[in-house]
Amino acid sequence: MKRVIITVVGKDAVGIIAKVCTYLAQNQVNILDISQTIVGGYFNMMMVTDPAKSTKETGEIADELDAMGKSMGLSIRVMGEDIFNAMHRI
Question: How many Cβ atoms are within 10 Å of 22's Cβ, its own excluded?
């Protein structure tokens, strides 16, 4: 299974989790783990997902979530777990 990491960062607002999770559900992307926090009015969420049942390629999902994020004033990033781990290796 190739897992995909999704991060969401920006000013807190009502409905962020609902919109992102609704998009993922509609596209058959399973959420394996999720963590979210709000610090000083800023929202931060990290999700580990499994897109295996989605009919969309990861790149298309990334583009659509990026557009959604921009429309909400958020940064939404999507990357394969291997890339994420390589970026955060000490």
Answer: 11
Cα 79 to Cα 35, 59, 87, distances in angstroms? 16, 9, 10
Q: What angle do CA 60, 78, 84 make, to 5 degrees?
A: 135
User: What's the pLDDT tens digit per position in 41-56?
Assistant: 999 999 999 999 999 9
Structurally, the chain folds into a number of domains equal to 1
Domain with 10 in it: what CATH number?
A: 3.30.70.260
- The amino acid occupying position 21 is C
pTM, two decimal places: 0.88
